[in-house]
Design brief:
Elements lengths: L7 E4 L4 E2 L8 E4 L5 E12 L6 E5 L4 E10 L2 E3 L10 E3 L2 E5 L3 E10 L2 E3 L3 E3 L2 E3 L13 E5 L2 E3 L2 E3 L3 E3 L2 E3 L6
Parallel strand pairs: 1-4, 2-4, 3-5, 4-6, 5-9, 6-10, 7-11, 8-12, 10-14, 10-15, 11-16, 12-17, 13-18
Length: about 170
């Protein structure tokens, strides 16, 4: 996926415990990069200490996450709001200007998400792009998802499902 050689599908085939793992979330990005699909197959990730994905960026890139639960995790990213523009969410921090972003049957259970500027249980902040080389519209779908038994905190916009709904009208 990083090399832009084609779409990537990740199949999670068993529960994953990331306790004591220093997770480094990645961004699916750039106009020529493919989409990434994560099929969770009703499995659970526990012990996550940062966002599953940092974000997405531009054009035909996309991120689809199906049937996955994040539980018993303490997700912390930019909690002091030092950058002033970071989206923090358990599944995706900041999807922006991507063709398709979908969370389907994704659940956050008995966890905390602690961020700075835009913090949400599932997604920190999402929006299109309206720069001089735009606009770039984004299709965001959140279907049959939930946040239960979890605490979401931040220094700016904060919400159970999504922290902030738009950075640009697109």
């Amino acid at each position: 996926a990083v090399a832009g050689t084609g779409n990537v599908t990740v199949e999670i085939i068993k529960d994953i415990d990331l306790t004591n793992v220093d997770w480094n979330p990645v961004t699916v990005g750039a106009p020529t990069h493919p989409s990434v699909t994560v099929n969770g197959n009703d499995k659970t990730i526990t012990g996550l200490n940062d966002m599953l994905f940092a974000g997405t960026w531009a054009g035909n890139s996309g991120l689809i996450i199906n049937n996955l639960t994040i539980a018993n995790s303490n997700i912390v990213h930019d909690e002091n709001d030092s950058a002033g523009n970071i989206g923090v969410g358990a599944f995706i921090g900041f999807p922006q200007a991507s063709a398709t972003i979908t969370l389907n049957k994704c659940h956050l259970v008995n966890s905390t998400v602690n961020g700075g500027h835009w913090t949400g249980g599932l997604i920190g902040m999402a929006g299109g792009y309206n720069g001089n080389d735009g606009p770039v519209f984004m299709n965001l779908t959140i279907k049959d998802c939930s946040v239960t038994g979890s605490i979401i905190t931040g220094k700016g916009s904060c919400g159970g499902i999504i922290g902030h709904g738009s950075c640009a009208a697109w």
